[in-house]
Write a structure and sequence with these properties.
This protein has helices at about 35-40, 65-75, 90-100, 130-140, 150-160, 165-180, 205-215, 230-235, 235-250; strands at about 5-10, 10-15, 20-25, 45-50, 85-90, 105-110, 195-200, 220-225. It is of the alpha/beta class and about 250 residues long. The model is unreliable at about 120-125 (pLDDT under 50).
Length: about 250
């Protein structure tokens, strides 16, 4: 992305635009570039903010709850009173936890390929260090169209998998997400919620989206066909239209 990362205190983030704050939370293997199209589109009419989640710096408290507390501190640090909150994959899980604790600060919640109920990760054979072709195939499975998994993206995942410390953190976060099942709590979310899901998502399959829709009272579900786990990357045009229409229905008053 063309913008430089801002450092403020212990926080690092991207920010551009003016207007209602739209906070984007990335996933476990999600680089900030995953939101590039969304970021560039919405910065024209919103204040778009992407905090860099400290996936590898949480110490002994590595888990989704610790990430939620980090986001809570970040939003307070930025002085944001009310936000539109969007999360992909593990970022969606963190967004759910934040919303459950801070509904007064969340105007809308948007989930795409979110964990929190069920997710199919790299499989039992993950992580397979040193095997580039294996990582390439696993990364391609994130998408309906394997060509979306560019060499740059595969290289990012490969570097993570071949860093022993990062692998330990990734496994800890993945296990934490599985343990932290929110099925009994989702009915307590009452903010307007938008679910934008790839019909061909194999990580958090369509049944997961349908269950989110059933459990979250004030929720809407939209499908994007021929699309996998990262809809905002694979089908940015359709994703941005759906998100734009939803946000326009729920302005921060």
């Amino acid at each position: 992305m063309e913008l430089e990362i801002i450092t403020s205190g212990k926080f690092k983030y991207l920010e551009a635009g003016e207007g209602e704050p739209l906070v984007l939370l990335h996933g476990l293997f999600g680089a900030l570039s995953n939101f590039q199209d969304l970021f560039n589109h919405f910065k024209k009419s919103y204040k778009v903010i992407i905090p860099v989640l400290p996936l590898y710096d949480l110490g002994l408290d590595t888990g989704v709850t610790s990430l939620m507390k980090y986001v809570e501190k970040f939003i307070n640090h930025r002085g944001l009173e009310k936000v539109h909150l969007l999360g992909n994959s593990l970022g969606g899980h963190v967004a759910l936890l934040y919303t459950l604790k801070n509904q007064n600060k969340v105007k809308t919640l948007v989930l795409t390929g979110s964990s929190g109920l069920y997710e199919n990760g790299m499989g039992e054979t993950y992580p397979k260090r040193g095997d580039y072709e294996f990582i390439k195939k696993k990364t391609e499975l994130t998408f309906y169209d394997p060509k979306v998994a560019t060499k740059e993206l595969v290289d990012e995942v490969y570097d993570i998998v071949n860093n022993r410390l990062k692998v330990i953190k990734v496994i800890a976060l993945a296990k934490s997400a599985i343990r932290n099942n929110l099925s009994d709590e989702l009915r307590d979310i009452h903010v307007p919620t938008c679910l934008i899901w790839g019909k061909n998502d194999t990580v958090t399959p369509p049944m997961v989206a349908e269950e989110f829709k059933q459990l979250i009272p004030n929720s809407e579900l939209y499908w994007i066909d021929e699309c996998g786990h990262a809809a905002m990357m694979e089908r940015p045009g359709e994703f941005n239209v759906l998100l734009h229409d939803f946000l326009k229905k729920h302005p921060i008053g």
